[in-house]
């Protein structure tokens, strides 16, 4: 095997035998780099990135014509924000009974009502479909799901089976100071009930129950319980009477009484209050 030729420092460079490209001295490389930088040319020791390293700006079959990568436009963020606001507005309209059970509503018509395009309305309605509040009617729009007394009673029973054992377990384990931290949420339900607005109370009630169940540290439990809660808050039909202001106030009072029992660690009272709370939810 032929020995490599010696470089300018006197060491041998492998592969520098006959036919090999001679190695450029270090001093010459530095000088060339400086000239390139002064001239505004790219450095020679920096190769162009491979195609696999470049960010993808299009989908398969889309011609980008060598355009530079473009950051995601801010309009997407705004559209997401609009979708969230429309979703909340639609939930409020459902709970308040402004969207009637059994009626079909189109995305363009609702968009005109809220002063937005049909796209964020359609996206919000798809979420409400997953939550069981509406159903898709092909080529027409979305029909509001009808919930009667029996379905509401079934939902209340499922919630009780899920939440009552958790609350009793928490009553024995959660420190007293953690229960005191929930006092503002309980008081918020009382104020919301006093307003007589069912939609306002529903949101405050949901926040209180979510905070209680969050103390379990079980995110799946919280998510399932919240889904059940939203299903039970849909518009009422048939013989279902809309809760009066007095009923909302009585329901909210059970929250503060429940916290008092939890702080006192009176498990028997907690059991009785929780059972009564869910019995009154049907």
Give descriptors for this structure.
3 strands, 11 helices, 4% strand, mainly alpha, 282 residues
Number of DSSP-assigned strands: 3
Distance between the termini: 92 Å
**β content, as a range?**
under 5%
Q: What structural class should be given to the helix and strand makeup?
A: mainly alpha
Bulk shape: elongated
Helical stretch tally: 11
SSE order, one letter for each helix or strand = HHEHHEEHHHHHHH
Strand order of the largest sheet: 1-3-2
- Detail the poorly predicted runs: 1-22, 38-65, 70-77
Largest sheet: 3 strands, antiparallel
Q: Report helical residue fraction.
A: 55-70%
Q: Which whole number gives the mean pLDDT?
A: 77
Radius of gyration: 33 Å
What does this molecule look like?
- The N terminus is likely disordered.
- Strand 2 and strand 3 form a beta hairpin.
- The protein is 58% helix and 4% strand.
- By secondary structure, the chain is mainly alpha-helical.
- Helix 5 runs antiparallel to helix 11, helix 7 packs antiparallel against helix 8 and helix 10 packs antiparallel against helix 11.
- The protein has 11 helices and 3 strands; from the N terminus they run ααβααββααααααα.
- A 3-stranded antiparallel beta sheet has the order 1-3-2.
């Amino acid at each position: 095997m032929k020995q490599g030729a010696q470089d300018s420092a006197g060491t041998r460079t492998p592969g520098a035998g006959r036919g090999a490209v001679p190695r450029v001295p270090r001093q010459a490389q530095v000088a060339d780099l400086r000239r390139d930088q002064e001239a505004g040319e790219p450095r020679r020791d920096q190769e162009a990135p491979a195609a696999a390293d470049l960010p993808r700006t299009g989908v398969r079959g889309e011609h980008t014509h060598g355009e530079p990568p473009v950051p995601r436009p801010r309009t997407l963020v705004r559209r997401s924000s609009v979708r969230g606001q429309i979703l909340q507005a639609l939930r409020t309209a459902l709970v308040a009974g402004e969207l009637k059970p059994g009626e079909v509503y189109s995305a363009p018509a609702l968009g005109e009502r809220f002063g937005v395009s049909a796209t964020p309305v359609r996206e919000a309605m798809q979420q409400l479909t997953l939550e069981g509040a509406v159903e898709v009617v092909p080529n027409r729009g979305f029909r509001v799901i009808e919930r009667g007394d029996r379905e509401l009673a079934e939902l209340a029973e499922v919630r009780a089976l899920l939440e009552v054992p958790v609350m009793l377990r928490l009553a024995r384990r959660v420190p007293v100071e953690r229960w005191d931290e929930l006092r503002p949420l309980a008081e918020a339900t009382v104020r919301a009930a006093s307003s007589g607005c069912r939609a306002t109370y529903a949101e405050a009630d949901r926040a209180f129950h979510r905070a209680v169940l969050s103390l379990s540290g079980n995110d799946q439990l919280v998510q399932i319980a919240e889904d059940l809660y939203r299903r039970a808050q849909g518009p009422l039909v048939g013989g279902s009477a809309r809760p009066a202001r007095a009923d909302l106030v009585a329901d909210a009072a059970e929250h503060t009484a429940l916290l008092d029992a939890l702080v006192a660690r009176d498990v028997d009272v907690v059991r009785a209050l929780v059972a009564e709370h869910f019995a009154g939810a049907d």
